[in-house]
């Protein structure tokens, strides 16, 4: 009976998350629409910090924080950055889906991420990010979000939507790891071999 209640509770939580994702767990967040993603982020997540963390200047070839008064709109910079990274990931794995639309949720911390993961796993892993194919959403912990983590999860999203029968977990991890390596190298970041 206990197993039934636990599975029933998970089912109800997943159902509610898929029907009313913004109203249940994500009431204190902002959103940003890009060509390929709708990004929901915690109120304490600064878009300027996000652009800096993701090394926007490396991919958009702009000065994010100009010294003069011609400051660009940070929302358009972040939007362009996510779309540019999506296209870069697509180029690396040679999978191009221009009609792709996904969701990204940047959670305030790992505890909030663990709450969501509890709906998917009996034993909740302590991870910085997670891609859910079921609702086409990438989840991140704000303190742990880096360029490498973002493109790794983007690769999972692209791979999951391209193949009718998704590759094994090991193959997906190899491809996502290669994407992460390639992007970090292109951005001039330290590459772990």
Count of domain modules: 1
Low-confidence stretches: 21-26, 67-71
Strand order, sheet with most strands: 1-2-3-5-4
How confident is the prediction overall: mean pLDDT?
A: 82
Main sheet specs? 5 strands, mixed
Distance between the termini: 48 Å
> Can you give the helix content as a percent range?
40-55%
Q: Treating each run of at least 4 consecutive H or I residues as one helix, how many helices?
A: 8
Beta-strand portion reads: 5-15%
Question: What is this structure's SSE topology?
Answer:
Blueprint: H1 2-19, H2 21-24, E1 29-33, E2 37-42, H3 47-53, H4 56-60, H5 74-93, E3 102-107, H6 110-117, E4 129-132, E5 137-141, H7 147-162, H8 169-186
Parallel strand pairs: 2-3, 3-5
Antiparallel strand pairs: 1-2, 4-5
Provide structural commentary.
By secondary structure, this protein is of the alpha/beta class. Helix content is 50%, strand content 13%. The protein is built from 8 helices and 5 strands. The protein has helices spanning 2-19, 21-24, 47-53, 56-60, 74-93, 110-117, 147-162, 169-186, and strands at 29-33, 37-42, 102-107, 129-132, 137-141. Strands 1-2-3-5-4 form a 5-stranded mixed beta sheet, sandwiched between helices. Helix 7 crosses helix 8. It is globular. Mean pLDDT is 82; it is low at 21-26 and 67-71.
């Amino acid at each position: 009976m206990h197993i039934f209640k636990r599975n029933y509770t998970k089912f109800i939580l997943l159902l509610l998350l898929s029907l009313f994702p913004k109203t249940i767990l994500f009431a204190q967040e902002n959103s940003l629409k890009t060509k390929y993603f709708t990004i929901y982020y915690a109120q304490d997540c600064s878009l300027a910090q996000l652009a800096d963390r993701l090394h926007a200047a490396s991919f958009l070839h702009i000065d994010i924080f100009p010294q003069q008064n011609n400051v660009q709109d940070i929302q358009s910079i972040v939007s362009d950055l996510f779309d540019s990274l999506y296209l870069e990931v697509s180029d690396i794995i040679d999978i191009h889906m221009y009609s792709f639309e996904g969701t990204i949720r940047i959670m305030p911390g790992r505890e909030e991420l663990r709450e969501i993961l509890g709906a998917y796993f009996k034993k909740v892993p302590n991870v910085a990010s997670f891609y859910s194919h079921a609702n086409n959403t990438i989840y991140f912990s704000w303190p742990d979000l880096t360029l490498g983590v973002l493109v790794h999860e983007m690769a999972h999203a692209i791979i999951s939507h391209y193949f009718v029968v998704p590759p094994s977990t090991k193959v997906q991890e190899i491809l996502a790891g290669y994407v992460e390596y390639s992007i970090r190298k292109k951005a001039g970041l330290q590459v772990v071999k």
